[in-house]
Amino acid sequence: MSTEPTDRQATSVRPPERTSEVLETDPEWEGGGLSVVVPTYNERTNVRRTVDRCRDALDDRPFEIVVVDDDSPDETWRVARDQYDDDDRVRVVRRQHDRGLATAVLRGFDEARHEYCVVIDADLQHPPELLPELADGFGDGADIVVGSRHVDGGGIDGWSVYRRVVSRTATLLTRATVPNARPIHDPLSGFFAVRRELLAGCEFAPTGYKILLELLAVCEHDRVVEVPYVFHERERGESKLSGQEYIEFLRHLYTLRRRSDC
């Protein structure tokens, strides 16, 4: 699978009718390893805490952690490499030429060795302790498992009313615009897991940072399970969001809508 978005023609996929369900039981883990993809940029104050908490959460399961860093000026990649040099379950990929969260995640997918891939932010806004529950969704027959802020038990902590309104509006707009996102309560989540075999043959052309939305639009899948979680504001470091990111998001929606109409 190529992870480079350049010189690529996007392919529209029309999968069969699909459903989204909230995971309410504890299905038996069906086996298979977990590759945790952690994209980073200027996260030296967070990366060790994130990796350590991921390792602790998955200690009783086969796993690896793939840190994909965009050559951070604060040398996040070096901090992670030096800290985990003696742990073969942690690998650090330093991208010196490519940039962007979406393509970093795709690079992580390409590097993954296990049957299932999970994407988690390095700023601890996604709780690593929930990784086993996301993995359990595959035992329940899911193709994609989404950490959801917008189902019972989920939520957002520390946001202003304005940010909540903007986020909710973006979610509703996404569900109205992209057909494959309509059954999903939180299609803009950055905390999700996917069967790696699902990625084979998918033609990604991502922009911005909403890789789950791209995946829902172009990859064949039958069943999505949503796991509630509470999104917490970052404790350390600076947010990467800007007005330009919102513009890119609207462009991405427009592109995905056109592709779905083809």
UniProtKB/TrEMBL annotation:
Residues 1-33 are annotated as: Disordered. It comes from Halomarina oriensis. One of its GO terms (cellular component) is membrane. GO terms for biological process: dolichol-linked oligosaccharide biosynthetic process; GPI anchor biosynthetic process; protein O-linked glycosylation via mannose. The keyword Transferase applies. InterPro entries: DPM1-like, Glyco_trans_2-like, Nucleotide-diphossugar_trans. Residues 35-199 form the Glycosyltransferase 2-like domain. It comes from the Archaea. Belongs to the glycosyltransferase 2 family. This is Glycosyltransferase. Residues 1-12 have a biased composition (Polar residues). The keyword Transferase applies. Pfam families: Glycos_transf_2. One of its GO terms (molecular function) is dolichyl-phosphate beta-D-mannosyltransferase activity. SUPFAM superfamilies: Nucleotide-diphospho-sugar transferases. Gene3D superfamilies: Spore Coat Polysaccharide Biosynthesis Protein SpsA, Chain A. Keywords: Glycosyltransferase, Transferase.
